[in-house]
Structure formats: structure tokens, C-alpha cells
Design goal:
This protein is α/β, with parallel strands linked by helices and 458 residues long. The protein has 19 helices and four strands. A four-stranded mixed beta sheet has the order 2-1-3-4.
């Protein structure tokens, strides 16, 4: 039969769960945070996609600019190179600059600069020698000090003309079009590999951009979930302790049930944020597809909240399991930290320590998958708590094996179980201590001190 007086008794946890969850949604601050987090998740994908579109739109945007927005009447071309760059090479037909007059004067650059009107621009192409003594081309698009032409219009035109100049000089040098396409693409990436790393990288399904997207998205989810939940658990535990409400509650509810009820309530709270945000992300991405068409680039599709759920059912389950594990471990730590506080000022120190752990994990989640260093990957997989931030993504991108993934889960499940027992033993003692904040050394003494009463000598 279950011992209701045991320190591990969870009798009353459902009551605490309902009360805590109700109080969270009654609190205006947490209601606002709930809505803000969902909106942020919803807009993450569209914001990333718009940023990608604006970055890739530089060259083609000249054809999208309307003639009335150009406000340029003449483009003066001064070419001091040996490369022919006339009307055909400029390729202004079919763009918003089609009606701009193009002239090729004989004056010098300095003479032309002195008499530019508000609607004229000077395209100057010259040769320079860089610091290594190599001759290079330099293209400049110059407007008058008092010009009617907008800066972004000039920037788009300059980028467009630069690419056209490059194409013209390659073609005039006898480079064929298919070779020119290969040259213009350049290197996709440059890395140094060991033989094993190279073979592993060659078989990977994810590009470097996709790895960055996966790591970043996972890091943001954990940062959001852990920061919000830990902060609430610390503050609510401390408030109940200071107000003496905990003494009343402990008449009918065991100490462990108190903290577990709060943990489950916050798990529900952040879980609802993730579910609502995920649904909202699907809706916002669908809307973007209707407005701009489906994204062709696979990497751009992963730059949103549901990136982690486009990696297959098994991988999605691994991600969810890792989030739950690290949530439980950090929640137990937050419960102990909150119960060690005796006044509001102590909360700063408690929250600061937890935030430091979360931020270290956040940085690791951002950087480790991108580094893709075998030694770092294997070490991080075996570090409790911190491994939760990196191991799931490392497994998805095939940087660690199934055996290492199982070891990761075994280590962190063991850490969660240990924290459960530590919390059960320490929480009930700390929650009744008044006065100054309990030091970490005192908490360790409580962990390793037996609860059994000593036998008196006969």
C-alpha cells in the first residue's frame, strides 16, 4: 500500500497542478507573455523568408522597379578599362531604367563630377591595384550631392551593372556560357576534413544552411521554454514560502507534490505555447506561400519554427523527448533554487545561476552543430544537461551514432531521476527555513545527510 507519509508521496499533485495553471493564466503578465511568444513563433518563418527574399532580390529587383520610381534621366558611362561595356552589355531593356538616356562622354571623371544634375548618375569603371599588387576592376555609381534619385535605387542598379560587367568581360575573354555559370556560382563551402569526416559529410542529407537553421530553431525553443518555466517556478515557490502559504498547504499536500504540481503546470503552459505556435507557424507559412509562391530553396524552408518537425517522425520524437528531459532537470533545479530563497532579493541570484546554465546550453546549441568537430560532438554528447541542447540536432545531421544517442538519453534520464530524489529530500527542508538565502554548500550537506533518527546509546 502506498505510504502517504513518504517524502516521495505525490498525493495532492493534481490540486497543485490545477491551482498553479489557473493562477498563471489569471496573471496578466503571463497572459501577455503567452500571446507574445505565440506571435513570435508564428512570425519567425515569414520574417526569415522575407529576409532571404530581400537578400536574393538585389540583381533582379531592377526589373521590378517602376519607371516613375527611378527619377533618373541620364546615366553617364565613363569606362577606363579595356572591356567593352556598351548598351547591349548594360542590359537596361526590360527594366525600370529602360527609358534612361545612356551617354558616353569624352570628359574626365573630375570634369563630369562637377556638373552632375539632380537626375543624372555617373557610372565610372576603372582599374586599380590592390595591396597585393594585383590589378583589379572597380565600379562606382555616383550621384550629385543634391540628387532626386533614392539610395536604394542606386544600390540595386550598381549591383546589377557590376554583375553585367563581370559577364561581359568573361564573354569577351572567350569563356563559354556553361563555364561562366560555374564560375559565377563559386564554391558552395570550404572545409578541412579527416578522411572519416569527409566520407560522413559526403553522405549527409543536410546542407550547412540547414544545419544552422536546425540548431538555431532548437536553441530558441529551449531558451524560451526553460527561461520562462524556471523563472515562474522560482518566483512562485519563493512567494509561497515568504507568505507562509506553504505551511498551510503542507497540511494537506506533501512537499514533493507541491513542486511537482508546479512543474507539470508550467510544462502544460509552455506546451500550449509550442502547440499554438506550431499551428500558427503552419498558417503563416501557408499564407507566405500563397503570396510569394512556394519557396524553392530547401534551406529557406527550414528557417522557421516547424523546421524541427520536418525531419521525420522518429527525429521529431527524439527532439520532444530531449526537451522534456532538460525541462524536468531544470525544473527540479528551479524548485530547489526557489525554496532556498527567503526574500525577493534572493531571487536575482537564483534566477541568475539558472539563466547562466541555460545560456551556456543556448550558445552550445547554436555553435556545436555548425562547428561539426568530431571531438567536440562526442564530448558534448556525454555531458548531462548540456547534451540536451546539442545531441538531438547532432543525431539528425548524422554527426553522432545511434549508440551515442542512446547513451545521451541514459545519462540524462539518470540525471532527471537523481534530481527527482534530490528535490524530494531537500525541498521539504528548505521550504520551511526562514532568514537568509541557503548556500549551495548547505544544500549539499542536506543531500548527503541521512534522514533517519540516530539511535540513542543504552
Amino acid at each position: 500500500m502506498k505510504n502517504k507519509n513518504s517524502i516521495y508521496s505525490l498525493d495532492g499533485v493534481s490540486k497543485v497542478y490545477k491551482f498553479t495553471l489557473t493562477q498563471a493564466f489569471k496573471n496578466k503578465g503571463y497572459r501577455v507573455s503567452f500571446i507574445i511568444m505565440i506571435v513570435m513563433i508564428m512570425l519567425l518563418g515569414p520574417i526569415m523568408r522575407l529576409g532571404a527574399r530581400s537578400g536574393s532580390k538585389v540583381v533582379t529587383s531592377v526589373s521590378d522597379i517602376k519607371e516613375e520610381e527611378v527619377k533618373m534621366t541620364e546615366l553617364i558611362v565613363l569606362n577606363d578599362t579595356g572591356v567593352q561595356f556598351k548598351d547591349d552589355e548594360l542590359k537596361l531593356k526590360g527594366t525600370g531604367f529602360e527609358k534612361v538616356k545612356v551617354s558616353y562622354p569624352t570628359e574626365t571623371k573630375d570634369e563630369l563630377l562637377g556638373k552632375l544634375s539632380a537626375t543624372q548618375a555617373l557610372l565610372y569603371i576603372g582599374n586599380e591595384t590592390n595591396e597585393d599588387g594585383i590589378e583589379i576592376y572597380k565600379l562606382s555609381l555616383i550621384a550629385a550631392d543634391k540628387t532626386d534619385i533614392k539610395g536604394d535605387v542606386l544600390d540595386n542598379l550598381a549591383s546589377y551593372l557590376k554583375d553585367n560587367f563581370d559577364n561581359a568581360r568573361y564573354e569577351q575573354a572567350g569563356v563559354e556560357k556553361d563555364v561562366l555559370t560555374l564560375i559565377s556560382k563559386g564554391f558552395d563551402e570550404k572545409k578541412s576534413y579527416t578522411a572519416t569526416e569527409f566520407q560522413s559529410a559526403a553522405s549527409r542529407k543536410y546542407s550547412e544552411a540547414e544545419v544552422i537553421a536546425l540548431g538555431t530553431t532548437f536553441a530558441v525553443i529551449l531558451l524560451m521554454v526553460l527561461s520562462m518555466a524556471s523563472s515562474y517556478i522560482v518566483s512562485s515557490v519563493m512567494e509561497e514560502k515568504v507568505s507562509k502559504l506553504v505551511e498551510t498547504l503542507m497540511i494537506s499536500v506533501k512537499p514533493l507534490a507541491l513542486v511537482m504540481g508546479k512543474i507539470f503546470a508550467m510544462l502544460t503552459y509552455v506546451g500550449l505555447i509550442i502547440i499554438c505556435g506550431f499551428i500558427g507557424s503552419k498558417i503563416s507559412n501557408f499564407a507566405m506561400d500563397q503570396i510569394f509562391g512556394k519557396a524553392d530553396d530547401k534551406a529557406s524552408k527550414t528557417l522557421n519554427f516547424d523546421a524541427l518537425f520536418k525531419v521525420g517522425t522518429v527525429n521529431a520524437i527524439i527532439i520532444i523527448a530531449a526537451v522534456l528531459l532538460v525541462f524536468l532537470i531544470m525544473a527540479f533545479i528551479a524548485g530547489i533554487a526557489g525554496s532556498s530563497c527567503s526574500k525577493a532579493e534572493d531571487m536575482q541570484s537564483a534566477n541568475g545561476s539558472i539563466t547562466m546554465i541555460i545560456m551556456i546550453g543556448y550558445i552550445a546549441a547554436m555553435l556545436v552543430p555548425q562547428m561539426d568537430n568530431d571531438t567536440v560532438n562526442h564530448i558534448m554528447t556525454y555531458i548531462p544537461v548540456l547534451s540536451c541542447f546539442v545531441a538531438p540536432v547532432l543525431f539528425i545531421i548524422e554527426s553522432i551514432s545511434v549508440v551515442e544517442l542512446l547513451a545521451f538519453f541514459a545519462i540524462n534520464i539518470a540525471a532527471a531521476v537523481i534530481m527527482f530524489f534530490v528535490c524530494a529530500k531537500v525541498y521539504r527542508k528548505l521550504i520551511l527555513i526562514d532568514g537568509s538565502k541557503v548556500k549551495i554548500s548547505e544544500i549539499f550537506k542536506m543531500i548527503f545527510t541521512s534522514d533517519k533518527p540516530r539511535k540513542e546509546a543504552a
